[in-house]
Design goal:
Layout: H1 17-33, E1 36-41, E2 48-49, E3 57-65, E4 76-84, E5 107-113, E6 117-123, E7 126-133, E8 138-143, E9 154-156, H2 167-178, E10 182-183, H3 189-199, E11 202-205, E12 216-217, H4 218-231, E13 235-237, E14 254-255, E15 257-260, H5 262-274
Parallel strand pairs: 1-3, 9-10, 9-11
Antiparallel strand pairs: 1-2, 3-4, 4-5, 5-6, 6-7, 7-8, 11-15, 12-14, 13-15
The structure holds 1,6-di-O-phosphono-beta-D-fructofuranose.
């Protein structure tokens, strides 16, 4: 049972009431499929094992990304990863089975709740986007075979923290400014990432004094979007290695995140290696 609103989740973030409603809604609907044997969620301390051990899949969930945007009516989203279980169906799922590296994802996706409701998912066969039509209560394929452009016209970073970011990030942001790129930061990673998936760009959330391990969660935010980015021709890194290569040691582990257009990420990493 997840915690009550006004409380902190396992990552120490204030929970909005809707964080928990979204969490409970997704948990019960995923359990009802009978295909899922375990779930880890940003809103739940540990692994939730589901009654039906026959399920073949493990799900990682960020029920409501950007939930601080709710009270200001700005975009939010749901992010998910799908992994195959390591033990045979029918067995009790071992807690280590949920700590698989992002490279072992079989699928990942997100739903963006904004001016439209958009569902994007990626597998090793490509990335596709669907838009919800409320008049027909249907999602329609509107973005097939999505490719993340090699370069973009914007960057997303919390500029207010710039002085606490590593020098190479400050140098890279100065380059973006010198090139006349636009700063676009919504307060919801899923919304910034969606913009970059369509028109190119880069999202940066480095380690800071306040968050020395970074802010974004590896299992719930970074791995799923890194999988989609790479399947769409983009890149995702923690500044030292590809996000998908990170071996997780904790469910609520955080990581610095740089994700988006391949050539912009390569330029940033070139600065990092000079540093
Ligand atoms: P939540 O999943 O708790 O919402 O945290 C993630 C996030 O909200 C991202 O969506 C967003 O890009 C970032 O944190 C905003 O953080 P900050 O307010 O520190 O810039």
């Amino acid at each position: 049972m997840a915690d009550l609103p006004g409380t902190l989740n396992a990552s120490g973030d204030e929970q909005q009431g809707l964080d928990l409603i979204a969490h409970d809604h997704l948990m019960s609907n995923l359990a009802a499929t009978g295909e899922v044997c375990a779930i880890i969620s940003e809103e739940e301390k540990g692994m939730a094992t589901l009654a039906g051990r026959a399920g073949k899949y493990i799900i990682a969930l960020d029920p409501l990304d950007g939930s601080a945007n709710l009270q200001v009516n700005a975009p939010v989203g749901t992010i998910f990863s799908i992994y195959q279980r390591l033990s045979p169906p029918g067995r009790v799922v071992h807690p280590t089975e949920v700590l698989q590296s992002g490279s072992r994802q079989i699928a990942a996706g997100y739903i963006l709740y904004s001016t439209a409701t958009t569902f994007v998912y990626g597998t090793r066969h490509g990335v596709h986007g669907f838009t919800y039509d409320p008049t027909l209560n249907e999602f329609f394929l509107t973005h097939s075979c999505m490719h993340l452009p090699q370069v973009g016209k914007s960057y997303a970073i919390n500029d207010g923290y710039l002085n606490s970011f590593p020098n190479y990030v400050q140098h890279y942001i100065q380059l973006c400014r010198d090139q006349g790129l636009s700063a676009r930061y919504t307060g919801a990673l899923v919304a910034d990432f969606h913009r970059h998936l369509i028109e190119g760009g880069i999202y940066l959330y480095p380690a800071t004094q306040k968050a020395p391990a970074g802010k974004l969660r590896l299992m719930f935010e970074s791995n799923p979007l890194a999988f989609i980015a790479e399947q769409a021709g983009g890149l995702a890194s923690d500044g030292k290695q590809p996000i998908l290569q990170i071996e997780p040691s904790m469910i609520h582990q955080r990581t610095p995140l740089y994700i988006g257009s391949a050539s912009m990420i390569k330029k940033l990493l070139a600065f990092a290696h000079q540093n």
